[in-house]
Amino acid sequence: MIVLATPDARMQRSYLAAHDEFAAIGEGHRDGDGVWVEEPDEGGFPGVAFTRAELETSEGFERFAARRRDQAREDAPRLTGHVPCTFFWVVDDADPDTYLGSLSVRHRLTPFLLEVGGHIGYSVRPSARRRGIATAALRLALPEAAALGIDPVLVTCDDDNVGSARVIEANGGVLEDVRGDKRRYWVPAGA
C-alpha cells in the first residue's frame, strides 16, 4: 500500500537512483522533490547547497533529508519567495526504503503558486509510473492539506500532461481553467 513518508536518510541509494532516472528522461533539472542545488548566487543562501557528491555521503544526505523535514516550520530559513512546505517521500509500505516519488504540500499560495504551482506538487520516478502511485499519493495528501486549513486545494499540471490531469480528476479535482500551459484544478480536501 502506498504511504507518505517523512524524508529519511535510509532512502539515500533509492532516492539517488530515482534522480538518475529523472535525468535520463530529461527531467534532471528536478529531483522530483524540488531543486537540490541551492547556491547563494541562485537566490539561495550560504550553508544550503546540495551537490551530487555531497548527497553521495551519508552525512550530506542526512543533512538534505533534515532540510526537507525542516521546511514545514514557519521560521525555517528558505529561499526568497518560498513558503513553508511539508515534504513527503512516497513509498510502498511493503518496501519502505524504496523511494517511489515525492509530494509537497505548500502551506499557502504566493502569486506564482496561484498561477502555476498550486498547493500540492508531486512527482513519481519514471520506473514507478502508470501504477496508480500518484493517484494514491495525492489522495493521502488531501487530509494533510485539510489539517493545515487548506480546503479546497489548488493542484496544477501541464496542459499536455494527460496522466497528471487524470490523477487530479480521480481525486475529485474540478478544472477551473487553463492559464498558459497550466491546467488549474480545485480539489476538495474534506476539511
From TrEMBL:
Domain N-acetyltransferase: 48-190
Pfam families assigned: Acetyltransf_3
PANTHER family assigned to the protein according to its UniProt record, in alphabetical order: ACETYLTRANSFERASE (PTHR39173:SF1)
Full protein name: GNAT family N-acetyltransferase
